From TrEMBL:
Cellular component terms (Gene Ontology): lysosome
Xref: SUPFAM superfamilies: Glycoside hydrolase/deacetylase (SSF88713)
InterPro entries in UniProt: Glyco_hydro/deAcase_b/a-brl, Glyco_hydro_38_N, Glyco_hydro_38_N_sf, Glycosyl_Hydrlase_38
Protein name: Glycoside hydrolase family 38 N-terminal domain-containing protein
PANTHER family (alphabetical): ALPHA-MANNOSIDASE, LYSOSOMAL ALPHA-MANNOSIDASE
Keyword list, A-Z: Signal
Domain (Glycoside hydrolase family 38 N-terminal) ranges: 35-199
Family annotation (Gene3D superfamilies): Glycoside hydrolase 38, N terminal domain
Span of the signal peptide: 1-17
Molecular functions (GO terms): alpha-mannosidase activity
Length: 206
């Protein structure tokens, strides 16, 4: 249970924001209607079939077509065109790389989008880490590095409130425990065992 002590110091940097972001920026729900949430989000592998730079710049397209720098730029422009749009950014590694290339005008636009809750960060790690094949220490390290960048650059509004692990090949109770100790309110996952899925449908916990 060593990791219990190691992750507790995350708590101060995951405080609630007092600005018009986070939950304060969500559309109001109507209890008498069915409320459907359609979430536009990034899903950019921080290394898989190609390297980080190859994904970011779009090289070796014969392996996989992906140009992450243009995805982020397109999202920012689309958000500015329509104030009703929302988007969530997951992979801080790519977002950091993109941020370093932007001029002051573009940076101010992104600051405004984050402060108004229209561009939100979920997860907050440098990557969406694997849960079963890694030791807890590098997982803590990559979250520490990424969350520090987000808070130092954008303030409290950039700090995520939910964990986002929709792509790892399986999940562990230790990862869920770390997310809880880091102060997250929720945990979204995508790949679970079919028996677990059907059991959750039966108990209405899916």
């Amino acid at each position: 249970m060593k990791y219990v002590c190691l992750v507790l110091w995350f708590l101060p940097i995951l405080g609630l924001s007092q600005q018009h972001c986070g939950y304060n920026a969500c559309p109001r729900l109507n209890a008498s209607e069915l409320n459907v949430h359609i979430i536009a989000h990034s899903h950019d592998d921080v290394g898989w079939l190609k390297t980080v730079d190859e994904y970011y710049y779009g090289t070796r397209s014969h392996v996989q077509s992906a140009q992450v720098k243009y995805i982020i730029s397109s999202v920012v422009e689309a958000l500015r065109e329509n104030p009703k749009r929302r988007f969530i950014q997951v992979e801080t590694a790519f977002f950091h790389k993109w941020w370093q290339e932007q001029n002051e005008e573009k940076r101010q636009q992104v600051h405004d989008l984050i402060r108004n809750g229209r561009l939100q960060i979920v997860g907050g790690g440098w990557s969406m880490n694997d849960e079963g094949a890694v030791h807890y220490q590098p997982t803590i390290d990559q979250f520490t590095f990424a969350l520090k960048f987000l808070k130092d650059t954008f303030g409290e509004c950039a700090l995520p409130k939910v964990a986002w692990q929709i792509d790892p090949f399986g999940h562990t109770r230790e990862m869920a425990s770390m997310f809880a100790q880091m102060g997250f309110d929720g945990f979204f996952m995508g790949r679970i065992d079919w028996r677990d899925r059907y059991a959750r449908f039966g108990t209405r916990t899916a």
